[in-house]
Amino acid sequence: NAGVTQTPKFRILKIGQSMTLQCTQDMNHNYMYWYRQDPGMGLKLIYYSVGAGITDKGEVPNGYNVSRSTTEDFPLRLELAAPSQTSVYFCASSYGNEQFFGPGTRLTVL
Amino acid sequence: GESVGLHLPTLSVQEGDNSIINCAYSNSASDYFIWYKQESGKGPQFIIDIRSNMDKRQGQRVTVLLNKTVKHLSLQIAATQPGDSAVYFCAEIPMDSNYQLIWGAGTKLIIKP
Questions:
Q1: Regarding beta strands B10-14 and B107-112, do their DSSP bridges make them parallel or antiparallel, or are they unpaired?
Q2: Which residue of B has its CA nearest to A5?
């Protein structure tokens, strides 16, 4: 199993540009999550999903959107990138207590 | 280079010694408490969890202690090795939260040779 995979690994955006961060898991987990991690800080939940077709806001959803059309995929969309969205983004999936994390996407907005 | 951990509390431990990492939590209604390890440039990795009705749980070289009276969680790592160098986060799962984690502040563990 590949676990949780994320693409791209790195990306630089200009202010106002849009992009989609991809996340795929092959463990057949119902629960999936998107986090952001700023330097020296813990993780903050952006959005989560309890199954295909169901998504809900986390702690910091503003400026982001998600969709969950399949169990495997949980893409995160940034519509109008802002410098405040410069961060490392982690996708995770879980069946129960243990969340499995992807390697992260480092995003810089200039 | 990796900037995660620059502003985090740091614990320096001699290789071979035991490490104790502490965490204070806030939500008395949490169902589970969890420790994660995050190595530089990687996503967090689950270490061990403990249910709220337990005081102690042991894993391989790790022990988690839960003191509900003072809302305190600790992670003990026995015979610390260089591979234990990482940032350690505690997290809690509130009841009925769809497994959403509330993350605590991390602690950077540095192993001295």
A1: parallel
A2: B43
Query: Smallest Cβ distance to B105: which of A42, A45, A92?
Result: A42
DSSP, res A62? T
Look at residue B43 and tell me if it is in a domain. yes
CA B94 – CA B83 distance, rounded (Å): 31
- Give pLDDT, residue B108: 94
Contact between residue A70 and residue A87 where contact means Cβ atoms under 8 Å apart: no
Structure tokens at A10: 């790195």
Is the model more confident about B26 or about A56?
A56
Q: What is the CATH number of the domain that holds A31?
A: 2.60.40.10
Show residues of chain A in contact with B44, CB under 8 Å.
43, 90, 99, 101
- The answer to whether residue B44 is domain-embedded is yes
Is the pLDDT at A107 greater than 60? The verdict is: yes
Which of A31, A40, A56 is facing B99, going by the closest CB pair? A31
| Candidate from A43-47, A51-55, B7-11 with smallest mean pLDDT | B7-11
Say if B25 is an interface residue toward chain A (CB within 8 Å).
no
Give the domain CATH number at B76.
2.60.40.10
Q: Of A21-25, A77-81, B74-78, B96-100, give the lowest mean pLDDT range.
A: B96-100
